[in-house]
Design a protein that fits this description.
mainly alpha, transmembrane helix, transmembrane, H repeat-associated protein N-terminal domain-containing protein
Length: 78
């Protein structure tokens, strides 16, 4: 028997591509299979001119740097 979850949130489907809504039932958008895919869904507020990198990639690098201990924009850049 699997251990009970301590979270009050419903457990998502074991299939990461399954469509679920906020109640954990079907009918919602598919769950992302990675953090980069999830961050790629963020709308890009920048103008097209001068954009070199996708916003999801920029956010993923910033997230990784923050998790690694960066505490400022300069730290993220390093």
């Amino acid at each position: 028997m699997p251990a009970l979850s301590s979270s009050l949130a419903p457990c998502p489907s074991p299939d990461p591509g399954a469509a679920v809504d906020a109640t954990g039932k079907g009918g919602g958008s598919p769950l992302p299979s990675s953090v980069v895919e999830l961050l790629g869904r963020v709308a890009d507020p920048r103008k097209r001119r001068g954009v070199r990198h996708r916003v999801g990639a920029v956010l993923a690098v910033a997230l990784a740097a923050t998790v690694a201990g960066a505490r400022s924009f300069a730290g993220i850049a390093e």
